């Protein structure tokens, strides 16, 4: 396995364990593309990475550092900006924001294609039971797709663009963030609104925990809130003085105690949910070819191991070593 030279900083973390926690440098660095990666997704177990450079779509085995099968090319691989791997690796999907392709993960065979017509898709999410997809559109509409019977139902939870979508593990609820300054939790069966969360500016990012109990919303100015979804109340907010924060990806981990976030400028961060404290910040590998590289996908693949993918095509693993106070 070929390892790349990495620049790193070691951080001392405090807070959630009541004592210092030291993070190590990244333990694996593997480059999968020599061009700009527009979209990527790491499987929940960290074994595979799916990525698109707008010309081809490749599936990599991270453990073996090799492609699983020949990359998809041609028209179905062009201008792909959204993609994802299902939880149990039954499917993967790709989208150029108008067409959505669903593939068999094991073989790479195309299963079906959905077309959104005049609607432009801003974001897509798949439920962990692998039965439901949600498409968020620039019109404020959202479509719920049943993979089993290919039914599509469209609702309008927002007045303006939907910028970010998340879906519960069983596909029963969707959580969407919009330019209309709201994030909305709603039922996928009928579009009924469960909770509405108001912000001061457009909501750029939403994340819902796997168990559907906790959510995070990030707007364009300074609202960065954790929510208790059942009662619709704010739980905490990010403890940061930065005027602007952008997340490319985020995920609740460690039984909703932490939030992992992927950011521009090669950054990845670990936040404590109960008080919004920043527990750690890491610098991803920089090739020297671009100073505008971003971390575009992040996963906690083991209790103490993080996996990331950058827009420069670099896959990395990071180990965190908590010292737990008894």
Describe this structure in words.
It is a single chain. The protein is an all-beta fold and 326 residues long. Helices cover 0% and strands 50% of the residues. It has strands at 12-13, 21-31, 39-42, 48-52, 57-61, 66-67, 82-85, 91-95, 99-104, 110-115, 121-126, 132-137, 142-146, 152-155, 162-167, 173-178, 182-187, 193-198, 203-208, 214-219, 224-228, 233-237, 249-253, 258-263, 267-272, 278-283, 295-302, 305-310, 314-321. The strands form seven sheets. It has a five-stranded antiparallel beta sheet, with no helix packed on it. It has a four-stranded antiparallel beta sheet with strand order 3-4-5-6, with no helix packed on it. Residues 1-23 and 322-326 have low confidence and may be disordered.
Question: How would you sum up this structure in a few lines?
Answer:
This protein has 326 residues and is an all-beta fold. 0% of the residues lie in helices and 50% in strands.
Index terms:
326 residues, mainly beta, Methylamine Dehydrogenase, Chain H, 5-stranded antiparallel β-sheet, 4-stranded antiparallel β-sheet, 0% helix, 50% strand, disordered N terminus
């Amino acid at each position: 396995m070929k390892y790349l030279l990495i620049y790193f900083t070691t951080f001392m973390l405090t807070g959630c364990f009541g004592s210092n926690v030291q993070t190590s440098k990244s333990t694996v660095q593997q480059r999968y593309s020599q061009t700009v990666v527009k979209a990527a997704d790491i499987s929940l177990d960290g074994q595979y990475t799916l990525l698109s450079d707008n010309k081809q779509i490749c599936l990599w085995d991270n453990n073996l550092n090799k492609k699983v099968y020949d990359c998809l090319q041609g028209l179905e691989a062009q201008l792909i900006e959204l993609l994802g791997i299902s939880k149990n690796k039954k499917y993967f999907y790709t989208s150029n924001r108008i067409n959505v392709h669903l593939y068999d993960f094991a073989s790479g065979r195309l299963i079906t294609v959905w077309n959104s017509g005049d609607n432009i898709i801003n974001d897509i999410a798949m439920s962990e039971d692998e039965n439901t997809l949600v498409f968020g559109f620039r019109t404020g509409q959202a479509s719920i797709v049943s993979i089993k019977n290919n039914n599509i139902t469209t609702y309008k939870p927002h007045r303006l663009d939907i910028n970010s979508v998340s879906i519960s593990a069983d596909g029963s609820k969707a959580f969407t963030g919009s330019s209309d300054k709201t994030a909305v939790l709603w039922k996928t069966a009928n579009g009924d609104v469960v909770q509405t969360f108001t912000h001061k500016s457009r909501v750029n990012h939403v994340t819902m925990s796997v168990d559907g109990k906790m959510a995070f919303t990030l707007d364009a100015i300074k609202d960065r809130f954790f929510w208790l979804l059942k009662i619709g109340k704010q739980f905490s907010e990010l403890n940061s003085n930065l005027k602007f924060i952008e997340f490319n990806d985020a995920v609740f981990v460690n039984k909703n105690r932490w939030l992992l976030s992927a950011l521009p400028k090669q950054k990845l961060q670990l936040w404590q949910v109960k008080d919004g404290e920043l527990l750690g910040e890491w610098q991803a590998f920089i090739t020297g070819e671009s100073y505008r590289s971003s971390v575009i996908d992040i996963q906690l693949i083991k209790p103490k191991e993080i996996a990331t993918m950058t827009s420069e095509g670099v896959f990395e693993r990071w180990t965190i070593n908590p010292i737990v106070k008894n």
